[in-house]
Design a protein that fits this description.
Helix content: 25-40%
Order of helices and strands: EEHEEEHHEEH
Radius of gyration: 17 Å
Strand content: 15-25%
Length: 155
């Protein structure tokens, strides 16, 4: 199952890189495969010169996954786990996935390096605090987000 959040954006070279990524996913055993994330030291984004993306093992924690896949065998146990944990403990989905991986250490998680997908600058519920959450704050920040997205699309 491929999950693409509404604020994700493919890199300019994604279409060229996807066949290689797809082949790696077919050749490797995995439960989760992340294509966009934060909080992994040294991780980079693709550039127009990127020719290869490597699917690498991930053992630690990551956040802000905007594009990821869950393997068919993992999907049913993950749904059951999410239903159990979220009824008593409302947490963000990235945290829930990390708890799943911690509870089931045999879970194999891969991450794309460099990342072929990125988050688009947008108003996000993760930042829904303070002045940025107000109508005026969103209006003031919108031009900056547009400029940031246009600039980032070039890479």
């Amino acid at each position: 199952v491929l999950v693409l959040e509404d604020d994700m954006e493919f890199s300019s070279v994604f279409q060229m890189l996807w066949p290689d990524i797809q082949q790696q996913l077919q050749d490797l055993h995995w439960d989760f495969a992340y294509f966009s994330y934060t909080h992994v030291e040294g991780s980079k984004l693709t550039t127009p010169n990127t020719k290869h993306v490597e699917m690498r093992p991930l053992t630690g924690y990551l956040r802000c996954a905007h594009a990821y896949a869950v393997s068919r065998p993992t999907f049913a146990p993950l749904i059951q786990f999410l239903e159990e944990i979220l009824k008593d403990n409302p947490i963000d989905v990235d945290g829930a996935y990390s708890l799943f991986r911690k509870k089931y250490p045999e879970t194999i998680t891969l991450r794309a390096e460099p990342q072929p997908v990125r988050d688009r600058a947008s108003h996000s519920d993760l930042h829904n605090t303070g002045w940025r959450a107000t109508w005026g704050g969103r209006i003031l920040l919108r031009p900056a987000r547009i400029i940031k997205n246009v600039f980032r699309r070039r890479f």
